[in-house]
Amino acid sequence: MGFARGWIDTIMRCLESVSYSVVVNGHVGERFHPVRGLCQGDPLSPFLFLLCGEGLSCLLRLAAEGGGLRGVKASRSGPQISHLLFADDCILFSEATSRGATTLRDILKEYRICSGQCVNFEKSTVFFSKNTTEEAKAAVIEILGVRSSNNPERYLGLPNMDGLCWRVGRGTGISIWDDYWIPGISPGEWPNRDDNEIKLVADLIKIPLAEIPHEDFQVWKGELSGDFSVMSAYKLLQESSFDPNFLIQADIKDFYNKLWNLQLPSKIAITIWRISWNYLLTLVNLKYKRVTRNVACPRCGREEEDITHIFRQCPVTVEVWHLSDLSWIIDSTIQGFWEWLTWVFKMSTTEQCKRICCGMWFLWRSRNILIHERKSKTGRELSHKVKQYIAELEGLEEKKSTSNMNCCHRHRKPLNGVTITFDAAFNKRTFKSASGVVVWGRSGRLSATKTVLHTNVPSPFASEALAGLQATRLGITMNLPSVTVMGDSRTIIKKCQSMEKDKSVIGAIIHDIQSKKICFQNIRFKFINRTDNLLAHKIAREALKKEEETYLVLVNEDSSLYPEGRWRREPD
């Protein structure tokens, strides 16, 4: 590697300054001096790893520069990565060809001759991309003499993959002690006798399991979908000083459940969601992106424009909250914006939350109008607009409610074929839920209803998925060859429509729904508005309240519901 002889002698004297002895059956053997290592914890030890690793790194880099070794790129314009080095492990990247494998083998052989360090092939594995042919895989494995792996993250020599967790299928691929598979409990953090073991058991039995077992698989816990995204990883790194449960799912559920249940227009709800994650293009955020240098508030010009200033400190904002009878929200001593926002939602009534959300939306909208159209609004004008808008929303809700009360639940608009609507009711205190399922004939006439109770349901999200599963089961029970299943949860419907594996926390339930599609000649899933799903919502709520299950078929049901010669089965 080109080091001076005197420098090498100095390093070797450091190695020979220590001595070892081996204890055999309690007897200490003779002491001896090492020639290739140091005691664990020696300050020089990590530098020896770096020095030895630099030799391998140089060989790989020379091969890549000469075109003999091709690494991988994280992006089209990014650099090629041929290797990643750790303390005593390394990850090598190459094209899956005989040429690439031969080049790697020769480099490792040369490194072994020069350094004396040999590759442990028993612990080494090779991982191929999805588009690699079986012939190419076999050739590479034969040349390198290592075994193939479809699950590289299970190799114990690799670093831990923060952010990954397991979805339980059969459970055979999961280490109970070492893997993250119980929501909210990290590996190795099993409770002691003094801990609340009942809570642990409750967390265990709330994990959804599929009726038809499937393989265990890993997902990214930074996204509810289970799929990795750069944005969620960036947020985890950016906020690494916080509790990961705060950043992922645990403590934010109450806030978002309350937000989505306010029944606000999508433009307002989505804006509040963007505010909560600091995704608004404030001048401070634009400065971080190197778009602008001026960060002074365009309204007052006194302070930097970030989300805290826009929604808590700006004089116009203060005036809006005072005139809206919400001055108490700016008197809080809470510093962090997220902590302040969740505290405001927690302390506010539903009506106050609506005013706060509408106020924030008008503040942000008026700020954009000021920048792009040079039109400004006073706090009094904005407060008046907020009150006027709230009144319009309440009038619209009252109109919808009156219209829904006047409609007959026994009829609906005729559709092409039999339809099944579903909804769920959830008790967050007892973790119980009820599924309400309604069958409508081709003429739009009510034909059957069914309610099912569930226990140990982890979330309202899971209760909606269970209701969708019950709707599918009822269609099978009634021998319906063709059916349209409809619900008011857009996310659940999209998951049922998708042909891809669902990686979310309710993936097991979605797996069961998708596996039952083969029982129908034709089955479709369709989203409907809450106002078109009132009967399913009502019977689910009543079933949860009374804690009783029902299965009712109307005597004057639609004669076209069942094909000739086919009869209803008893419910499972």
From TrEMBL:
Alphabetical keyword list: Coiled coil
One Pfam match: RVT_1
CDD domains registered for this protein in UniProt: RNase_H_like (cd06222)
GO molecular function, one term: RNA-DNA hybrid ribonuclease activity
Coiled coil: 379-406
Reverse transcriptase domain boundaries: 1-160
PROSITE patterns in the cross-refs: RT_POL
Top-level taxon of the source organism: Eukaryota
Name recorded for this polypeptide: Reverse transcriptase domain-containing protein
Originating species: Gossypium stocksii
Taxon lineage: Eukaryota, Viridiplantae, Streptophyta, Embryophyta, Tracheophyta
